[in-house]
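[job 4471] stage=fold_predict status=RUNNING
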Amino acid sequence: MSIRWYALLWCMVFSCVVKNTCAQHTSVIHARNFGVQHEIYFNDSLWYFHAGELPAAQQNRVSTAGWDSLNYTAFGKQNAPRGWQGVGWFGSWIRVDTNLVGKKLSFRINHDGASEIFLDGKPIGGYGKVGNSVQDMEAMDAPREMIPVWFADTRPHLITIHYSNFIGVYPSFFGFQTWIGDYKQVSQRIQTSNQRFNYILMCAAAQLILGILHFFLFFFSPKQKLNLYYAFFVLLIGINGICIYIFYRTNTPFLQYSAESLTQGCKVIMMWAALILLYLLDYGRVPRWRLITITTISTLYFAVYLIKFLFQIESWDDHFAIVFFICMMDGFWSIYHLIKKKQKGVWLISTGVVAIIMLFFFAWDDTFHLWTYGYNSLRLLVMAVGELIMPLCLSLYLAADFAKTNENLTAKLAEVENLSALALAQEAEKRELIAGEAKRLEEIVQQRTAELREQADKLREMDLVKSRFFTNITHEFKTPLTLIINPAKELIANNTDTDVKRYTGLILNNATRLLQLINQLLDLSKLENGLMELIRTPLDLVALIRMHILSYESLVKQKGISLHFTSHWDKLWISGDRDKLDAIVINIISNALKFTDEGKVEIILQKEPESLGEAFNLTIKDTGRGIPAAKIPYVFDRFYQADPSDTRSAEGTGIGLAVTKELVELMDGQISITSRQGVFTQVNINMPYKPADAAPEPVLEILPTGVILPKADSHSPAAPDEEKPLVLLIEDHRELRDFVQQLLADKYKVLIAADGNEGINLALEQVPNLIITDLMMPHVDGYELSTVLKKDVKTSHIPIIILTAKADMDSRIQGIETGADAYLAKPFEKRELFALMENLISVRNQLREHYSKQDLWFSDSLSMPSIERDFITRVRSAVESHLNEEGYSADQLARDMGLSRTQLHRKLKDLINQSPGELIRIVRLQYAHELLQRRVATIAEVAYMVGFSSPASFSASFSRHFGFAPKTVSAI
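[job 4471] inference complete, writing structure tokens
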């Protein structure tokens, strides 16, 4: 029976569309494939198998890379997957169509072992207790239990099952079966099936009661042995019904196996008891040869089934149906005799025997395969109800034959009916209780969901607070570091004292290390919040690795070890993020050298052989102290150290490898570590890449075009103060402000301001040549300061450098949008700062020279910015309105423009390299030239019209400016 039942299950095959996702096959679940059973059979789809246990760190991973493929999970002892020793991991990639997105689905599993089920690395359920031996494992069978699952999108998802089965109750079924379906529909179907099984149990109870009743009849009337055989027969039917119920409803595999074996034994004994009853009714006693024949046949079959049960032998075709049919035909012969005797009620016995035969062939054995798997519970219910027919027929027959016991029998039957009604009432009450409990559980789920949502909101708020903390603490850390690193460099460069240089170098090294740690913490924060961006540029990966290897040459010689690099490429040009690849290579190589005291470190760059696309494999292997096996799964955890003791020989914070792993995964790569304590450690990095065209070889210290490097060691005499550019420094940190002022004092006149408000006031008052400002300051920050000054006509032309520790891309973009001309991150290099300043001042000088040579007063289209063009237009209008006034001076022009004379002077000198007086004179002469060309008046008249005191003064000024006399113009 079980073989045919499982064969029906295996025949329910569904169709999945397989796609390639992350080098794995994905099965597509379509709603249209669910069919009448509202679910699909899933264990013959493509699965992946990993024998034995996974490391703890990988048990929740969302990957089946490196696993063996498997096309059938309901395997037996003979067809088990390679490497199966009773425990392993199974995984299958699935995705749903758009009709199933967000819909509640059911996941069912049938097995005789124990399982832990995960969806995308998160546990969703399981049955029993998974173990590595029979003693550690607790087997459980729950095919009628459902696990709810949801898929929020149509992307591939990974279902993994941690499964163990050391018991092997059924030799042909060591694996498991799985189904996925519509939760609501499957739940209703299972609920209906469970109700039918409960009815089967009720039928069995009725049969037991009927058998017990006749047993008591025999007890009160021992002479009527027919009651004994009848009671025995009916009790067997009841026991068989209970066994069927246990087989389908128990969660214990061995109990299920025992119940199945018991039903096989019951059917043999039931056939024997039925024939004995018929023989007694016909002959009044059992003929000897018939007794021996049917007993021998029944004993042989029973012994075979017992051996099969004890030794767990595979099922075979025992031809019992043929034997059953032949024996029941002999029973029909006895009925024929009764009919010939014209015994009343024989038709009842005939009906019962026919019913038993029909039930056996059409329901129990299902010889003609009329019942599909979905109607299995209905088949069993029909069989359970049908098995009542013959006992009832025999009871009616016995009631007529034994008139004396008719009243008692009627009372017992009434009692059976009451018990049945009571059982139905109890079942209804139980269903009502279940419904109430389900409603209560639903309310609890809703409450827990709301709590989880509230907790998620709090976690997001905490994450934002943490991000703001990292941003602010960066400024606080990097400002003092700037005051440590730059003065230390100055001391080393300008001091000849050996001790001073040595101690200063120590300060510089540790400050630099502190800066690296801060940057690593910031990188972790960015990676955790998904803010880290990839900036891909063409680079030679082989050259990059060689460059870093050369930087460790002195350390290798000092430790007396060897460092070898082997590459399968001479040059490998890829499109990659240089800064992040630098961090990865530096972290891995420095770790290998740090923990290797003797032997060698080998670095191998080669093509990844198992990759379908372009990918490289970077291997770093050392002969160092190694890592204990128990600690390898945790080496990539943040702040984890394999040796956390105070006596460890190597320094470290435990964030280098964490950052490295995050960076590798950011670039779609994978990193792994294998190690043996005291022997070796090997790091493998597999990473895909996009090939890039070779770029020009990089040159060290590359600076932007037009930048002029300052001569730090120049001994030329300093320029007079009046010739030095005026620089306004705005910085709220006093020590940093003093340090930068000291750096700039030799080449610039420096104005200082302690905050943004003071800086704006000084800039408007003094109109400097250049402004250097911090970003994070009280009252007014660098963004607002830049916006205010760039919108004011007095200062709109002044270049602004924002100097800050907030060096992320968003901050840079925001600074540029406010009008800042440059953005320099703390801690800064002195040469870089000087180069930026010289470059900006040089560019401003070039623009000034360009504008000073243009005809700014009569051109309708100027190339300068709109705010500067408006300013020049206003100046021109002011001069034109007083063109004929001889006494119109620079002071009057400044008043007309709303500026002080100093402000107007510095603005015009920076903008067009002309003083206000020169500008007034040039405007007058330009208008005079135009008037003379148009021959509007004589030279003398033109001289007075443009504000000159005499024609002689006008002629002299005109000749000096244009290089020819006024009369030359009037004569043309």
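[job 4471] summary: The radius of gyration is 48 Å.
[job 4471] exit 0
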